[in-house]
Automatic annotation (TrEMBL):
InterPro entries: DUF2306_membrane (IPR018750)
Ranges that cross the membrane: 62-85, 97-115, 121-142, 154-175, 187-208
Keywords: Membrane, Transmembrane, Transmembrane helix
Lineage: Bacteria, Pseudomonadati, Pseudomonadota, Alphaproteobacteria, Sphingomonadales
Protein name (record): DUF2306 domain-containing protein
Gene source species: Novosphingobium arvoryzae
Length: 219
């Protein structure tokens, strides 16, 4: 019996789906790398900063530079460590480097957030992001040392989701600049400081919970 691919449209759709997935992933990776690269070079271009960041860079020259550089590296190191989780030879050393980098980025986030803030609410939003980031890292390390790999993976994914706040914050701020034309700047900045990281964190937690429910209900 001759097999006819036309009778099974899923066969024809799979290559297209893989291609679309690859394109989307490549676009996301490119955007993350571009954001990380821009943040990595930011301390060299302080004169181009908006006023609220220029003040922080002036008051905290060392801390601000450490935060920008370590945060930029985290945008690359954390996803790489997660992608290489199936290759322990590469994952373990990279994960250790990423963890140290996350600690540095998280600790330096507090003075950068709280010194000369745009608003009090925005400062606490950034500080809360740092707290959540460090707590999830600590929980992830605790789980992996106890051999709970699934719980470790969940914590690392949640930590990565929290980290994307650095990207979404800039995206939302750019969209606000385009469409709001400068109106209600302080209010939007404060909201953005909370929404940018809490929404990805909440969505990731929801997806992980649904995956856990499906595994538990599987026969």
């Amino acid at each position: 019996m001759m097999f006819n691919s036309r009778s099974n449209p899923d066969i024809n759709r799979k290559p297209l789906a893989r291609l679309l997935s690859a394109v989307v992933l490549a676009a996301i990776a490119g955007f993350v790398i571009a954001t990380a690269y821009k943040a990595l070079l930011a301390p060299l271009h302080v004169d181009d900063f908006p006023e609220e960041l220029a003040v922080k860079a002036e008051l905290l020259p060392v801390t601000f530079t450490l935060h920008m550089v370590s945060g930029a590296l985290a945008l690359v190191l954390v996803p790489l460590a997660i992608l290489l989780s199936g290759a322990p030879r590469w994952h373990r050393p990279l994960a250790r480097i990423a963890a140290l980098d996350v600690v540095l980025a998280g600790v330096t986030a507090f003075p950068v957030a709280l010194v000369a803030p745009v608003t009090r609410w925005s400062a606490w939003g950034f500080a809360a992001q740092g707290v959540v980031w460090l707590v999830l890292l600590g929980l992830g390390l605790r789980h992996i040392r106890a051999g709970r790999t699934e719980a470790h993976r969940a914590c690392m994914l949640l930590m990565a989701a929290t980290m994307t706040g650095a990207i979404f914050f800039r995206v939302y701020l750019a969209l606000w600049a385009i469409f709001a034309q400068g109106r209600h700047y302080e209010l939007f900045y404060a909201v953005d400081a909370w929404v940018a990281w809490s929404v990805p964190l909440g969505l990731t937690a929801l997806v992980l919970r649904q995956q856990g429910n499906r595994r538990n209900s599987a026969p």
